[in-house]
Design goal:
The protein is 11% helix and 39% strand. It has three helices and 29 strands. Strands 11, 15, 16, 18, 23, 24, 25 and 29 form an eight-stranded antiparallel β-sheet that branches. It has a six-stranded mixed β-sheet with strand order 1-3-5-9-10-7, covered by helices on one side. A hairpin with a 5-residue loop joins strand 21 and strand 22. Helix 1 crosses helix 2. The longest helix is centred in the N-terminal third of the chain and has 14 residues. 40% of the residues are buried.
Length: 379
Amino acid sequence: MAVRTQAVLLQFFADNVTGDITGEMMRDFVDTAFALGKPTITAIQTADYTAGYGEIVRVDTSGGALQVTLPAATGNGSAYVTLKNVSDDATNAVTCVPSGAETVEGGSSFVVSGARCVQSFVSFDDGVGGAGWMAFDGIQTPPAPPDPLPIQEDVAAWFHADDVSTLTLVSSTHVDTWIDDAGNGYSVTQATDSKRPIYMADFGDGLPALQLTSASVQHLQKLGSRPINPNNDYTIILLIQATSGVDSKAVMSIADSTAANRHLQLQYLFGQAKHRLLADAGTDNDFNTAMTADAWHIVVMRRNGSTLKTRVDAGAENTLPASGTVTTNSLTIGGLETGAGGVGTTFGGYIREVQFYATHKDDTARDALVAELMTRWNM
């Protein structure tokens, strides 16, 4: 791909990484990013750092100036690196230096400074000894962070930990309420402090997550209403990680708060993701799809007519004919409603996002939603 095309992509990302991104813009970005290969967003660097190809290097200069070494351009023309200062510091600079005798903007170094500034670099190699890096469009100061990326307009309920404003926290980290960012009123809550999930601003990869401990029965609920009717078509997308050794636990359930043993749930069961629809008459429609513990997975649950479907990541999709109807009136994230407001088999692990759609998304729409989620969560 030509250098100019990469530069346009990089400038788009630099302009919008904390700016207002529309759904159409994101689709264009995802299409181009997949053609190039996904960028890698680094952890926040506070000391000298050597960048890799295709990285978005996040730095924090509030503690002092630092140096970023660009990778070798020789033999790697049209590579890219983007630098972003995540701090409000405008005093300390980042000095970008090339590899060996190469150049950056024709010199031996290039200085970047400014609060929350962004700078993009694209490599060149003319094949006759000239190789280095070009800087594009200077230093930029993006606008204040906006709302997160929009999901499809027909989303029935949307919970995502990448926007802390959708979380009501007690004691800084205890989640009292996870707001339904679709705006449809399905926010889930927990009044008992010991049962509240824990918000982690950095899971260890620079991105947030909600931690749920099964032994503490941590979960969030919306009693009296639910975003989808399990008897009709639906699509549910979850980004989760199960903790090894904590098995047979409900990740999410839509159930009846007045009677036990009638529900739709996703259950983590001994290395399997179980899609289960337990009908009022006792008919148990359930089937498993392999899902390893201690790793992030995207699970997609769908219903199309009488067919239930489950896919974990990009694996094969499992299907099962469903029979019977189920009465439901509540939503639980992190557990299974067992009737009369009781909760059992709570999940042990981490949740980053849950999306509910009251329609069956076909394979193309499903893949587009998964691609958007993967881009936003740097997968």
